[in-house]
């Protein structure tokens, strides 16, 4: 159970990192 919860947190963290990277790409394209 603890392992599944940890895996869920890791997947959420990866999803957040991808969202932040996409946001940075949009910001860079708007700036340049």
From TrEMBL:
Keywords: Membrane, Transmembrane, Transmembrane helix. The chain crosses the membrane at residues 12-31. It comes from the Eukaryota. This is Uncharacterized protein. It comes from Arundo donax (Giant reed).
